Amino acid sequence: MKKAALALSLALAASTAFAQKPVEITFWSWYLSPKFDAYIKDSIAAFEKANPTIKVKWFDKQDSLVQDFLSSVNLGNAPDVVNLNIDETAKAAQNGFLRPVDSLVSKASLTSTFYPQSIANFSTGGKVYGFPWYGWLNEGVLLYNPDLFKKAGLSRAPRTMTELLSYAKTIKDKTGAYGYVPAYKDPNTASFLGYFYSEGLPVYDKAGKAAFNTAAHAALLQQYVNLYKGGYVPEDAIRREAFQVATELYAQGKVAMVVGGPQALNRLKDNNPGLYKSVVVTEAPLGKAGVQTGGSMDLVIPTASKHPAEAAKFAAFMTNNVNQMKFARIVPIVPTTRAAQNDAYFKQAGTDAIARATSLVGASGRYINPGYKAPKNSDDLYKNFNDNIEAALLGRKTAQQALNDSVAYWNANMK
Amino acid sequence: MIQSSGPRPTGRRIRAGLRDTLLSYAFLAPALVLLAVFTFYPLGYGAYLGFTKYTGAQFAQGLGPQFIGLENFKALIADPLFWTGLKNSLKYLLIVPILQFASLAVAVLVNRNLPGMAFFRGAYYVPVVTSISLAAVMWEWVYNKEGTLNWILGALHLLPQGGAFGWLNNEHTALYAILLVTFWRGFGYYMVLYIAGLQSIPEELEEAAVLDGANRWQRFWGITVPMMRPTILLCTLLSTIAAIRALEEVLVLTNGGPLNSTYTALMYVYSKAFQGFNFDYGLASAAGLVVAAVALALSLLNFRFFRSDVEES
After folding, report:
1. Does A125 touch chain B if contact means CB atoms closer than 8 Å?
2. What is the pLDDT of residue B2?
3. What is the domain partition of chain B in residue ranges?
4. What Rg value do the Cα atoms of chain A yield, rounded?
């Protein structure tokens, strides 16, 4: 009897000790260090304080994130929470690398916290694979150089995409500076396919086949081809991301308008504070569909995570409204939480360009939508699409032929 | 029957020989183990993967590669993008003779004890240690439509009015523009190897040639080049293999464009092996095997060409 009591008390002590031993989870962010070290560390500290049984080990990964992830899975020490974007989440989920997060937290908590579209952005095959985190809008704001506008005889910002393209010609003809840099060759979901969505032209038909080669699609592409061939767009736009080219040249006074998120203004403020003071920030024109395109980051839980429940708890904490709003106060991100749209922070008026841009787009997280779902072998298909766009721009193919060829390739190779 | 005319080995001698052999292998063992683990095994496994199907989905589920014979090679043959890459990689070889001749010539020039030579040697070596991302930014400025190169050509009236274009944006010039970057990056490296080779040439040969009345050009072709042939073979081999494996410059400067005019075979391997989560290790390994086979064939050609010269010299 004595022995049994002793054994029982030992077992209880052991189980108590075991229960109190904190679980350590590993969190990988993507390109956030060193600029946002303080924010991440403070958030982790707050989480650990609220959850003393969970410790978080943070690593910031940069261009090697995916390769490191694969190696870690192979070596059996996969991270528990990983920061990905819409495209990579889709690819990782389609290939079986991720756990559905709606199996770890209730769907009700997800739908009450995040915009429906934000959840849809990270859903594949009817399951949600990521906690939506910060986002951005491709058409978020328009910023322009008032001096170049004045020289070109323009008195107000363009209100439609058609007007924007015509402004680009006027500005180049009258000032020598470029008006605008379209996203011809942006990677993956930010490619020219986004323009189809903006103009209300579908990427797929109802059967899920690629269908972006109608006469209307070709006419739209032709407009942009004409702009390029006419010398109204910097040549580098066929080789580099439009946002990079536009922000660089705007700071040099060689581009009059930039369409994008408030982050463009951060760069301008760093590179040319004088030009930053004069920049005009206003609403960006939308395409005929009247919709925004955009992207977002999320936090995913790998299938190989050893502590999925704790990982989900941490991911939910990092992406909740309080923490996304804290992040939005540091850098002009667009939160993906429903509550953010009513936050007073986005309603404050100010004369500063970044503050104005933030107030214009900060509460617009519900519009974040790439416009279409990435196919399974998206890298091959996007490359083929971009190669065909390039061929049209360089006059190797007509716009119609380029789109026909790409659609044929997509439908033959789409998995 | 031919009999050995030397003394017959005694038991003691045999034991001593065996001991020496074992000792030699014992010294070699650490290096051999490292080579086996980090070179031969990955090489063999990579070659095996070329005959298998091994995708992201299999990897995620913990499934191993599945043997499919020559299917990956058939897929490669049917993929025009792979052929474009291979063709461009072969075009990349153009840089090899130019790079070797120039670095040898400059090595001869800076291999003198004149004031300031150390600075020149150092300066030529700087691009070797410059990171590719930094080099890319610099060369962007050079090749841009409004960049330094067009400015110089314009100032020299070599560019017609309004004829400026971005050298990296044009499918006819992009590859050659990148070759120049490769030249700039590799030049100092080969120059240092050549300087090392030059310093091993006995001074008496040069002195004798001077006494015989040979001029500098005659001494270069008559003494330096023949004596340097082993070094030239080494540098040409390294440079050929590097050209076939060109990736970094292309990736950061043009990402294979425009119109895939700079897309190399190794870019194909890289994109198939490391493209997000839907990679295809099998296809990438097969493509890697083809690239390795081409590099091997070219190396053998180099060997054949220079080896006979080396033997003659």
Report:
1. no
2. 45
3. 10-39, 71-312
4. 24
Q: Determine which helix (DSSP H) or strand (DSSP E) holds B105, and give its type and residue range.
A: helix B95-110
Which three-class secondary structure state does DSSP give residue B136?
A: helix
Whether residue B307 has pLDDT greater than 80: no
**pLDDT score, position B245:** 87
Q: Which residue of B has its CA nearest to A64?
A: B274
Of B144, B260, B271, the CB nearest to A387: B260
CA distance A50 to B97: 66
Query: For chain B, how big is the Rg over CA atoms in Å?
Result: 26
| Better-predicted residue by pLDDT, B159 or A282 | A282
Mean pLDDT lowest among A287-301, B84-98, B193-207, B299-313: B299-313
* B229-254 per-position pLDDT tens digit: 889 999 999 999 999 988 999 999 99
Q: How far is CA A13 from CA A16, A18, B196, in A?
A: 5, 8, 71
Calpha distance B303→B313 (Å, rounded): 15
Domains defined for chain A, CATH in brackets: 23-134+296-360 (3.40.190.10), 141-293+370-413 (3.40.190.10)
B271 touches chain A (CB under 8 A): yes
Chain B touched by A156 (CB under 8 Å): no
List C-alpha distances in Å: B77 to A387, A406, B311. 20, 20, 40
Instruction: Name the superfamily (CATH) of residues B71-312.
Output: MetI-like (1.10.3720.10)
B279 to chain A: closest CA residue: A377
- Rounded Cα distance, B174 and B85, in Å: 14
Please name the helix (run of DSSP H) or strand (run of DSSP E) that holds residue B309, with its range, or none. Answer: helix B281-312
Average pLDDT, chain B: 88
**Pairing of the two strands A123-124 and A127-128:** antiparallel
For residue A281, give every residue at least 6 positions away whose Cβ sits within 8 Å of its Cβ, in sequence order, or none.
Answer: A141, A142, A143, A265, A353, A356, A357, A360
- Beta partners for residue B295, in sequence order: none
Task: Name residues 213-242 of chain B within 8 A of A (Cβ).
Answer: none
Q: What percent of chain B has pLDDT over 70?
A: 95
The answer to whether B205 and B187 have CB atoms below 8 angstroms apart is no
pLDDT lower than 70: segments of chain A: 1-20, 187-190
Structure ipTM: 0.84
